[in-house]
Amino acid sequence: MVMTTGRRERKKAQTRKALADAAVRLFAEHGYDGVTVAQIAEAADVSIATLFAHVPDGKEALIFDDGAGRGDRLARAVRERPPGEPVPRALRRCLAAGGPFAGDLPPELRRKRDLIVNTPALRAYSRTLWIAGEPALAAAIAAESGQDPSGMAVRALARYVLEIPELAGAEPDPLAAMHAIFDLLEPGWPG
Amino acid sequence: MVMTTGRRERKKAQTRKALADAAVRLFAEHGYDGVTVAQIAEAADVSIATLFAHVPDGKEALIFDDGAGRGDRLARAVRERPPGEPVPRALRRCLAAGGPFAGDLPPELRRKRDLIVNTPALRAYSRTLWIAGEPALAAAIAAESGQDPSGMAVRALARYVLEIPELAGAEPDPLAAMHAIFDLLEPGWPG
DNA sequence: TCTAAAACTATAGTCATTCTGGATTTGTCG
DNA sequence: CGACAAATCCAGAATGACTATAGTTTTAGA
């Protein structure tokens, strides 16, 4: 019996959000290295042990409370794209919509995005979140082009696409940079 | 006056090597996480403070004593390739010669390579060493194709090439995997 | 209400890394 | 040679992330 809306789950999500909010605020104020996990736990009014129970992946994971499913979104975009649309175009669309490429964000999210882009530890962790979706994306691409999902060509393609945010995110014009990379990858695209 | 062969430099290199040797041996015996830097310092007969003076980048950097210049080798391979040879072919040759792709290595080096490939922390650090050569490789590629060295297309190309070792290094046939990736990148290659 | 799982906490570790402050060694120059 | 400055070394303490333990509170569900 999975009661997804029990008080327990609600409190859990609430605490997780309090931790993420405290982390974003404090990081923005004092910088990532200028804040200790003890201070974040204090600000969220929980013990350090509880903090790590909620965020087992550690300090860098604190601000990423909105699920890890970044890479998986791309796989879904491929699978559910309009019929006839080429795979790379679907990927361009999906990438452009989120992550570092979205044009106008609420100031709160913009601050968070800048924080990630400008903090090496957070950028690196963000990359691992994206890359975790590699098998899913490789499977989706392979299904469309009739290739082996574990073959190197498909795997590399998935990896290269998933690394675009980190590669283009810090450019003056991230969106243009993203398209430039796709223009590079598309000629070799299978199928 | 830079006396490159003074006793000081010699002792320094000697200690650095002792640390690297002790680290490789202990890591191979007990695994990366099964060894503390204190044990490595002990085995090399130096204090912990001295260990960090020799290896400021920390535990992962211990076994990489042979200069960081991996990525730079690729840039040189491009610049000094035989006249008329396409850039990608020169890169294939250079990559195939070293890193995880070399066929027959002395058992000592093979053990070290397996250690790196099978240890996430070491693999990640190895990647940062490769990637550090991105600007140099991008400059070399740009010079050949008459493009802007800081343009996204060239930068992405350099990055993607430098990530081949991490991407293909763990495959059953690393060399074949490497060539598969180049077959993917070459159609979009500029110039 | 009763019970067992889940969540919370304080406390005490372990480990990597940095800092401090002083000793020792080495290159150089008079 | 002998002294001086720089580089090197070291013990020891401190910081900070993270883990392990063991006991307390809260909640879900019968």
Automatic annotation (TrEMBL), chains A, B:
Keywords: DNA-binding, Transcription, Transcription regulation. PROSITE patterns: HTH_TETR_2. The keyword Repeat does not apply. Residues 36-55 bind DNA. InterPro entries: Homeodomain-like_sf, HTH-type_TetR-like_transc_reg, HTH_TetR, MftR_C. The keyword Transcription applies. SUPFAM superfamilies: Homeodomain-like. GO terms for molecular function: DNA-binding transcription factor activity; transcription cis-regulatory region binding. Residues 13-73 form the HTH tetR-type domain. PANTHER family: HTH-TYPE TRANSCRIPTIONAL REGULATOR BETI, HTH-TYPE TRANSCRIPTIONAL REGULATOR RUTR. This is AcrR family transcriptional regulator. It comes from Nonomuraea endophytica.
